[in-house]
Amino acid sequence: MDDKTAKPDLSGQCGQVQCTESVTPTDLSFEELRNKFDTSATHALVRREIASKPSTHGSATRQVVSGKIFKKCKSATFQIDGATYTIEQGALTIVRRSSSRSKTESCSTPTDEQLDQLDLETEHLPAVDTPDACDKAALRLRYLLRQLNRGEISAETLQKNLQYAAKVLEAVYIDETKDRRVAEQPRAQQATLHMRRLRTPCWARCSVEKSNDAKRLADEDDELSEVQPDAVPPEVREWLASTFTRQLATAKRKSDEKPKFRSVAHAIRAGIFVDRIYRRVTSTALMQFPQDVVRVLKTLDEWSFDVFTLHEAANGQPVKYLGYELLNRYGMIHKFKVPPTILENFLGRIEEGYCRFHNPYHNNLHAADVAQTVHYMLCQTGLMNWLSDLEIFATLVAAVVHDYEHTGTTNNFHVMSGSDTALLYNDRAVLENHHISAAFRLMREEEYNILQNLSRDEFREFRTLVIDMVLATDMSFHFQQLKNMRSLLSLAEPTIDKSKATSLVLHCCDISHPAKRWDLHHRWTMSLLDEFFLQGDKERDLGLPFSPLCDRNNTLVAESQIGFIEFIVEPSMGVCADMLECILGPLHSGNKSGTNAATEPTIDENSGAESVNKFKIRKPWITCLSDNKKIWKEQATKDAEARANQEQEENIEVQPPPEE
């Protein structure tokens, strides 16, 4: 293969290769192709480029010295016929694809006839990072300009289409500038800065595919139309992974098997073809979402998410749909190769476990609510950028299973009544130990094992994280947990363990309903008191003393909630916010050029000026806590007056009649 077949384009970061299609006179074996790819001419070109720009090719320099150019890069980017592909850790990901049309055609101004046929509805537009989004946005902008000149456009239609076009431009900007930003940052920052982008929701992808299926398939398949299935040997993906990433080959070829390719471009095309088939099969297998559920899940990123509405829309299965959506949005299904049917089975069994004892509060609604609140903490504060994929996976699963098979009674009830569960776990974190144990026992069964494709080390780390997080939801550890975190944050340079951080986040989300909107909080409070009163009835029947708040005849609801907010929830959310700002502050100080919707400027109390140096997260719970506490105080005053009037009436009734 001559130099014209494949030349490294080193204008960007390490591992970026520009491939142009060319056909060699004779077919090459797989090993010959690989050897020719690492030619001395290629190495010489790389050395010249690195000598001219040594600051941007530190990683590449080490690879050239070892004589293994592009062998151990974390990622590689290929451009084929105007399409851009990225291989990261062995997986092929399409970063951005331009249209398959020629530049002249794509840049030409649309005709009046084309504009007249345009439908400005925004319901079924492709996702902003899909191949034809740019074309759609450009065409709509042209049409809007024409309609503005004619005065024939409504404000609502204009606003929706401009918003869509702006999102498309933002997505393109991110794709085009990401590599340059990474290359310009110091190496120390590259290890910590990793701004995640959540995947397209299952329900959004399904709706887009249904409305744009024919055109999308035509656009995406143009550049691969010549690749036939019999030209895709199984070794292609292994070669791509072992050559351009740190992932080692999982199997060795027999010496007599020598697949042949006419060029590197064809080899890469073959790999992409296989990957696309796999993605289409898995996307087709993804769970379908009812339209009512889709409507509710569109508000998933809000702090006061209405899980009760989701429960009704999901026909009593909020964990199934919300858990599935979160694991997809964070890329866990794809990253850890979780079979969609296995995940659906697992979430179904978890949901059944939450409904086993028909608890008013500790049920599948509570599990879904906590999981959504954890999602808010991960996504809206930026915590997901600090955690690894496995840590996010463990955090989401821990949130889903943290009260699995809850009995509707407290740990103290189990200990005082001498239940089998208390005997099994020696009176220590009785319920929390059971939640963990039962969940992992479930995942040992093949049809529910969502961890089946984790390595041994990944499984051990995952299990340790989940155990730590769920055990931390035991309220008997509450004050010690806050004390330890406060002590850690008081240090000059605190180093926060990720397990402790995620444990505190899950604990705060578990008790967060007083920090939600009043209508949600009040409904949760009534459900929890119902559960407490049912336990009190059992304690009375067993001759046990009433646990706090469990005597239905002597519980002051408003006063109890005021105390819970002031002494438990407010301090917990305050410490959690301080911890998040301590963790995420250094990340954002090193990425000042970026923006984060979860941050807000701080006000210097002395000067009144805005301080741009101190990172702060948004805290929507502060307003909710204040409003809810105010309402409870008003209710407490009314209750006190009602009790005083009742006592006065009772005293009048028991007074003896005056003597004649």
UniProtKB/TrEMBL annotation:
The keyword Manganese does not apply. Zn(2+) 2 binds at D403. Its EC number is 3.1.4.-. It is an enzyme of class 3 (hydrolase). AMP binds at H362, N363, N364, L365, H366, D403, D510, Q561. Binds 2 divalent metal cations per subunit. Site 1 may preferentially bind zinc ions, while site 2 has a preference for magnesium and/or manganese ions. SUPFAM superfamilies: HD-domain/PDEase-like. GO terms for molecular function: 3',5'-cyclic-nucleotide phosphodiesterase activity; metal ion binding. Residues 647-660 have a biased composition (Acidic residues). Keywords: cGMP, Hydrolase, Metal-binding. Belongs to the cyclic nucleotide phosphodiesterase family. This is Phosphodiesterase. It comes from Bombyx mori (Silk moth).
